[in-house]
């Protein structure tokens, strides 16, 4: 069925080349496919994205003579490919969109975004710079260019560090120190994560208890646990105390989560350093074995 549609489209396109009145009809068909594709994207689901991809492709297969419309179809299809993580194909569609219409700013941005996902930061910067020539000062392009430049700087720094590690001799004492650092960070992280989970459970219990207490009549007296005893008292002080505790937990949880993320990063960096040191040791051992042979 798809092949029959493709053949019919080619026939229609050839007819339009001979019949100027058919040119408008082809453009209307392509525009209709573009609109349907945009409408499907509003569902914000992967299946809808795949359908939109097919619709934009069908619009391109019409082969209308409007370069701006074709550029929009290529750019929109690139947007869908970004959603589907088809980054290489997204860059290709953006290039074709720019060929059709160099003023299609979205194509430059999407090409740079896809390049960033592919770790092709220099390409991303080039796309942003080319787009800024068409739309000087475009805030989205400037922001994305800065992100590409920042990631590129990080890549260059990591490569420089890797070369530095590769060029130095293996030191067993340093490796042991790094191993101890990894172990210590792992223990700290485990304790913090356990404490975080405990606070979350406490928060849930308090919320459930609060709902139960709130459902009782206002003049109800309730027992409150104090150490190993239970004291009978008014309901409101108990509710106030629970709210105060919940507010305190709500303040602590984000701080604990941030601390956990920082510890995780420090642990990952230490593990990476240890792997690099082991790699240096293995290479030195291989060179020594080759020399001995």
Brief description of this entry?
With 293 residues, this protein is mainly alpha-helical. Helix content is 83%, strand content 4%.
Describe how the helices and strands are arranged:
Layout: H1 2-18, H2 20-41, H3 46-61, H4 67-83, H5 87-100, H6 105-117, H7 121-134, H8 139-167, H9 172-214, E1 221-226, E2 229-234, H10 235-292
Antiparallel strand pairs: 1-2
Helix pairs in contact: 1-2, 2-3, 2-4, 3-4, 4-5, 4-6, 5-6, 6-7, 6-8, 7-8, 8-10, 9-10
Structure notes:
This protein has 2 domains: 2-161, Tetratricopeptide repeat domain (Serine Threonine Protein Phosphatase 5, Tetratricopeptide repeat), CATH 1.25.40; 172-292, Orthogonal Bundle (Helix Hairpins), CATH 1.10.287. The termini are far apart. It has a two-stranded antiparallel sheet. It is 83% helix and 4% strand. The protein has 10 helices and 2 strands. With 293 residues, the chain is mainly alpha-helical.
Strand order of the largest sheet: 1-2
Q: Ends: how far apart?
A: 67 Å
Please name the CATH architecture of the largest domain. Alpha Horseshoe
**Helicity level:** over 70%
List the secondary-structure elements in sequence, H or E. HHHHHHHHHEEH
Structural class estimated from helices and strands: mainly alpha
| Count of discrete domains | 2
Question: Top keywords for this entry?
Answer:
10 helices; flat; Helix Hairpins; mainly alpha; disordered N terminus; 4% strand; 2 domains; 293 residues; Serine Threonine Protein Phosphatase 5, Tetratricopeptide repeat
């Amino acid at each position: 069925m798809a092949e029959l549609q493709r053949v019919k489209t080619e026939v229609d396109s050839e007819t339009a080349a001979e019949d100027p009145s058919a040119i408008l009809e082809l453009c209307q068909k392509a525009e209709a496919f573009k609109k349907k594709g945009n409408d499907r994207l509003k569902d914000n689901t992967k299946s809808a994205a795949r359908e939109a991809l097919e619709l934009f492709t069908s619009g391109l297969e019409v082969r209308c003579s409007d370069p701006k419309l074709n550029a929009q179809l290529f750019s929109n299809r690139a947007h869908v490919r970004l959603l589907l993580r088809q980054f290489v194909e997204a860059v290709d569609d953006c290039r074709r969109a720019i060929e059709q219409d160099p003023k299609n700013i979205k194509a430059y941005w999407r090409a740079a975004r896809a390049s960033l996902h592919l770790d092709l930061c220099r390409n991303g910067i080039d796309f942003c710079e080319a787009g800024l020539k068409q739309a000087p000062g475009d805030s989205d392009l400037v922001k994305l260019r800065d992100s590409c430049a920042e990631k590129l700087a990080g890549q260059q720094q990591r490569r420089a560090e890797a070369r530095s590690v590769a060029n130095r001799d293996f030191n067993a004492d340093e490796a042991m120190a790094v191993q101890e650092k990894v172990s210590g960070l792992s223990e700290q992280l485990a304790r913090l994560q356990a404490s975080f989970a405990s606070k979350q459970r406490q928060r849930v219990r308090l919320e459930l208890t609060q709902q139960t207490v709130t459902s009782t009549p206002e003049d109800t007296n309730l027992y409150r646990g104090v150490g190993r005893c239970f004291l009978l008292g008014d309901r409101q002080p108990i509710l106030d105390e629970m709210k105060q505790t919940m507010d305190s937990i709500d303040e602590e949880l984000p701080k604990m989560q941030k601390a956990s993320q920082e510890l995780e990063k420090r642990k990952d960096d230490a593990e990476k350093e240890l792997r690099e040191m082991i790699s240096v040791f293995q290479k030195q051992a291989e060179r020594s074995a080759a020399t001995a042979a």
